[in-house]
Amino acid sequence: MDNVLVLKDYKTVPDIVHEYEPTLKFGHIPLVIDNGSYQCRVGWSINDEPHLIFKNLIARPRKDRCKKDAEPPVTPPIQIGNDIINIEAVRFQLKTQFDKNVVTHFEVQELVCDYIFSHLGLDSDGCVPHPIVMTEAFVTPNYSRQLMSELLFEGYGVPALSYGIDSIFSFYKNNIGDSGLIVNCGFHTIHIIPVIRGKVISEHARRINLGGSEIISYLHKLLQLKYPVHVNAITMSRIEEILHEHCSIALDYQDEVKKWANPDFYDMYVKKIQLPYVQNTSSSTLTAEQQKERKKEMARRLLEINARKREERLAEDEEQLQQLLSIQDLIEEGDTDEFEEAIKTFDIKSYADLQRQIANVQGRIDKNKQRIAAAANPEEVEVRPSGRMQPPQDPEAFQTWLAETRAKYSEIVSRREARRARRAAMVRRRTAAAAERMRVISRLAAAGDEFGNQDSDWDVYKSISREADSDSDADGERLLELEEALREHEPAPSSSLHHQLHLAIEPYRAPELIFQPSMMGNPEAGLAETMEYVFKHFSAEDQLLLANNVFLTGGCSQFPGLKERLERELLEMRPFQSTHKVVMAGDPSLDAWYGARDFAGSNDFESCCITKEDYYEMGGEYLKEHHASNKYYRSPPPIVDNTLAPAGDANVVKEEIVVDC
């Protein structure tokens, strides 16, 4: 089944600046901010949907050095959220305020808050006269909450502030009871939070340091390793699209792997992702006659290049022959001293070696002259083995001829590669090929000659093997003929086929990290093992309460098959004939904001807020607890070590020094 899918390459749309209506301005309507590590969702408590949904990222594009300082920049110096139109262009300049799921970089958080308040249309001179409900991570450190409260109270003048856990807000939004096991699959972490009779049992909650970010990165590496040619086209944005659109969780991963090992199953169910590519249309604009003339011109140029190379080799060989003959004349003239000095200069060991080199060079010269003369004859150039290169008209015979031509082409290419490898081995000393060559050369010498017994004879061999590749010229010309025939008659492959990603087991392998983090080298336990560990901390009665209400929320819980996989895992880990139930959030991505919105509109909201007076009196880490909040644990006072301080001495004389400024 040919199932080719096209990537949509979604583009972000910049957020509009909303109108700050009088009902909002004078009604002190609470503002709800779901400050997620992947997306930030912002809206008023009286709205049905959030006004702003954007990725919690900022980018500082590099300044264009070609422009002068006086010229206005083409792009804004800081891009936030949906203002980042082309995220791949600034991928390496992206920053986030989060470390995992905890806010730690508050200079970035301040820029995000500026973006939020400006796009909501607030015109209150830097002040935000609205109570704020903000989500935070489970068991957020006091120091992080202190800096967030400091930013909102002192930086923006917020009158009241309340914090809550996103997954708890989502749990109560779905009205599924007051007991359950919350599985919050986030962008960087997975939290398993038990809730018994409305009380969060935080001491038995567990966190897995893995989420959507790690799954995206893992799938990105898988496809880049599988298709190294398309490493630049496989971007993180496209991987996100593939993850959201095509990935799912297998009910039995090992069984799924066995299925994809079957070639028939692969051909039937593989997903082919078409990458964007530019079609080469240069050849289609030429007529058949123009293409034929172009091929002839290319062939003529190649012949000219080969002829020029032969002439250069011929000139070098003739020069070398003259030098060797001049050395031979020295011995005939009886000038022994100059002869010995000359053969040392040319790395020649004996008169016999000189004769062999003269014969080899003379043979190369004769062969090159014959080839140059043959190439100069126009009849020789134009004559082609047309009977061999002309394809038959019958379709079946044409396919046979095409296969034979490909086989001949591959054979010549293999022979040429083998020749190059053999030549490279001969250049290196103490290889098997070099030793065999030395043995043959030494056997060709006279019976009384000691050539080949000494290691220094290698230098003579190197000079003999010079230009030994002249025998490959015929193969080169034949290769050119075959290339022209294949280029002319072989059907051109479709360029789209070379720009496709085949997704087989990869859409199941990447989300499997949720259950097997060890696949990416993470030593932590998977989701099923961690849930089983949490169950063991409760009595059988409480375990039944938790197992009958396993609640899935968070963006990564939207993988198809996750609910069915968890039901299967619960069936394996729970006692025989015990019951269990897995409940999916109505909207795993937005239910946290919906729950916080409902909380902001409840009658208990004002009593659960931290006022500015509470902030100044109790400190920035102070938190008023409610049903969806973290527990407040006051930070212990700092330990002061007085052992190093000098003991008081009554005999110490104090002297006051006055310095005139």
UniProtKB/TrEMBL annotation:
What Pfam families does the record point to? Actin
In terms of superkingdom, the source organism counts as: Eukaryota
Entry annotated with the keyword Acyltransferase: no
Assigned keywords, A-Z: Coiled coil, DNA damage, DNA recombination, DNA repair, Nucleus, Transcription, Transcription regulation
Coiled coil feature spans: 288-327
Q: Which GO terms describe its biological process?
A: DNA recombination; DNA repair; regulation of macromolecule metabolic process; regulation of nucleobase-containing compound metabolic process
Gene3D superfamilies this protein is in? 3.30.420.40, Actin, Chain A, domain 4 (3.90.640.10)
Localisation:
Nucleus
Q: Name one GO cellular component term.
A: nucleus
Q: What is its main location?
A: nucleus
Specify whether 4Fe-4S is a keyword of the entry.
no
Please give the SMART domains that the UniProt record associates with this protein: ACTIN
Q: Which InterPro entries match?
A: Actin, ATPase_NBD
Its assembly, as annotated, is: Component of the chromatin remodeling Ino80 complex.
Q: Name the family the entry cites.
A: Belongs to the actin family. ARP5 subfamily.
Q: What is this protein's function?
A: Proposed core component of the chromatin remodeling INO80 complex which is involved in transcriptional regulation, DNA replication and probably DNA repair.
For this entry, the protein name equals Actin-related protein 5
Originating species: Pieris brassicae (White butterfly)
